What we know:
Layout: E1 2-5, H1 12-28, H2 36-58, E2 60-69, E3 72-79, E4 87-90, E5 107-108, H3 109-124, E6 132-139, E7 143-149, H4 155-164, H5 176-186, E8 192-199, H6 220-229, E9 233-237, E10 249-253, E11 258-262, E12 266-276, E13 283-291, E14 297-304, E15 310-320, E16 325-333, E17 346-354, E18 358-364, H7 369-379, E19 384-390, E20 414-417, H8 426-439, E21 442-445, E22 468-469, E23 486-487, E24 501-502, E25 506-507, E26 514-515, H9 534-539, E27 547-548, E28 552-553, E29 560-564, E30 570-577, E31 580-585, H10 591-595, H11 599-613, E32 624-628, E33 632-634, E34 640-646, E35 660-664, E36 670-672, E37 675-678, E38 687-693, E39 700-708, E40 733-742, H12 746-749, H13 755-763, E41 771-772, H14 778-791, E42 793-801, H15 806-829
Parallel strand pairs: 3-6, 3-8, 8-9, 9-41, 11-17, 18-19, 18-20, 20-21, 21-31, 33-40
Antiparallel strand pairs: 1-2, 2-42, 4-5, 6-7, 10-12, 12-15, 13-14, 13-16, 16-17, 22-28, 23-24, 25-27, 26-29, 29-30, 30-31, 32-34, 34-38, 35-36, 35-39, 37-38, 39-40
Helix pairs in contact: 1-2, 2-15, 3-4, 3-14, 5-6
Amino acid sequence: MQLTFEPLENSWFLVAGLIAVLVMSLVWFSPRGLPARRRNTLLMLRVVAAVVLILMLLRPSLVRRDNRPTSATIAIAIDTSRSMTLASGERPADGLLAGIAGGDGEATRWAQQAGVLKRLADELGPTDSESLQLQWIVFDEQGRMLAQAAPGTTDASGTVESLLQSGQPDGRVTDLATGLRAALDAGSSQPLAGVILLSDGTQTVRLSEGAESDAVEDPRAPSRLLAAMGVPLWTVPLGPPSEAVLSRDVAVESLPETYRMFAGNETEVGFEVALRGVAGRPVEVTLQWEPADGPVRTAAERTVQTGQSSETVGVRVPVLAPEPGRYRLTARAEAVDGETILGNNDQVAFVEVSEGGGRVLYLEGSVRLEQTYLRRALRRFPDLQLTYRWIPRDTADQWPIDLGTELSRRRVDVVVLGDLHAAALGDDQLEQLAEAVRSGVALVTLGGEHGYGPGGYADSPLAQVLPVRMNADLRQPPGLPAPPSRSSPAGSGGAGTDAAAVRPGQIERPIRLEPTTAHPVTTIQPSGPGGPTVAEAWQQLPPQPGANQWVSPKVAPGVQVLLADQADAPMMVVGEYGRGRVASLAFDSTWQWWRGGQDEFHRRFWRQLMLWLLSREETDDRSIDLRLDQRRFATSESPSFEASWTRSADTSDGRTPRWTAEIITEDGGVLPVTGQIRPPSSGEAARWNLEGTLPDLPAGFHTLRVSVPDGRGEPASETPPGGSEGEGNSQPRSAEVAFQVIDDTRELAVSQTDHPLLRQLSSLTRDAGGRSYRPDQVDELVEEIQSRQTAARAVVIQRSRLGDGPLSGWILFVLFTASMSFQWWLRRRWGLA
Length: 833
């Protein structure tokens, strides 16, 4: 017990000053001329009142300190993933769930965990302490609070028995971080005395289909947080030690689900090969085309190898797309001796190869080498029909020229604008071209002294179509050569001119093009496998003598910078406008690649650019657009799909179309699929949508088919109500999407445990007392918990301050008012007031 004072306003100087004033008042105003007895009586009453005031200024307190046992929580995290049904490496023991066994009579890890939990419940449950709470947590891919049991009751044993007798664990994957995070949440309302984590330690969440590696938390992060809080983590590794199991596994991972390719186009296919236990051994990896009908063909072969016991190797393979059609592209790694898990040795991507044909209209304003070699490159492909139109500058007095119907969607698929002033076409035809792009026509714009800003396109209707922002102040008069801004060395040139002068809006220095992102247009390896990489192939090209200068690329969905120069200035930007694709090139001297010996690269570049521009999601307004969220998913997942259909104006009567959705299974069976029809919005009078979710399906390759009648929305075999005979009986339109359902057994496939990871997690909390215990060391763990609970005490401080309580407050009030009141009464009686 300790006496302390808390002066008014926490200032001794203020209190000392007030006491001095109070004492001086007592002396100065002392009654005079009275008998000694009366004077002493009044003085005594004033002293009592002064003492009360002084006590109120000093506020004395009595402080008591006491050490008491603290209340805390022990969080017990229990692994309920499917791997707990695998063998533990131990023989079944007597007790709870002793009859559950794995292969060769071994007890399962679930039974092994049951024995540990039963022991913990029996030893920590019946105790006289009321300050220890047991928080039970179960986790697999998610962590969940199971129950909280207070010692001294039978709730602990009852909770464990209820959990273990409820059935086999069915968690799809294991995520240790979720269990630790749930344990941290258990300490949000009460201090954590410790965390017990029971698991085999294998993080299969990283192997689950559809899981992004950057979305999976490292279990070391919550362990470090426990260490920072001073909370020990006690791990109990289950199953056979990983050191005792020789595991070999080769797995193909991270192959994209879908590809869209064009016949004759080269596309880079990327995936990863996880190698485990095959250090120093080469593993053959093949890519194979599997058509719907026809023999399987090998697309590429690679060999991967690692010198480490476990490593994931990235593989990038350029493949040439076959003839148009739908394919499965399978990446398969050969099985190695001693490998027991073969289901992960391959992955499948769904590929749609489209025709590369199209009609190209090339409009040029000056005769130059670029158009000569561009036409030569495109004419080598018979599926590209090229129409070249030269509009001489000396005919500017007759501009704008009349192109008739050449800019309509039905007449042309791709429009290429060379070094041509905007005035040559006029605003009306540029507006027609913009509308054609919005409807699906592709557009390519090249550099030149009369291109972009100098050509007047910044103020034209085409400005909204191009993916770049241009400078309108650079506009030059049509038909006349652009005046040079300053001289440059002879031969340096600029985009679109051989003159030794710098034109407005031009970059005068030599430019080396560098790809900025992986894209079907710029992914070019003309030498094939074993040759230079994509970046090296671009570096080997002759530099461009100059280029146009833009203000900046637009910030809009779909806009991408594909090529830049050595100063990071954008040189090629692609984007979308409505349903059409647009590519803007700041340079116009790709012919130098041809002359520099890179003719194959030159042809491949223009070929792939044209094929990318010709990619259209719908070739018919009345076709069905079918989209599936996932094309490769596990049996436990049910992705959704959406189908949309635009009904033509001559068949639209406002009635709801009768959609048909069904799944054709791998064995030829048909399963109906229900969906919800969404009618057109006010702005889309003829656009209908069907949305639904796939049902549970067995593992294998299946196909989703959605059909809708082509007439009035009624089946072909029936006459629509209120309609005439023959109305609406055309064949229904349909769309199909193939997909793969994967047997969700990754948790069971990874039989090897990861005890070192569990030991590492507990070692992170070593300073707080963290440690890893074997299942046969549970008694030591119980002793550690009980000793920590006995030693855990909290300091309790009790403070009693004069005047805070009702009793002391009333006493001071009565003393002060009584003394002052009695003094006033005496002064009145004695005639002093």
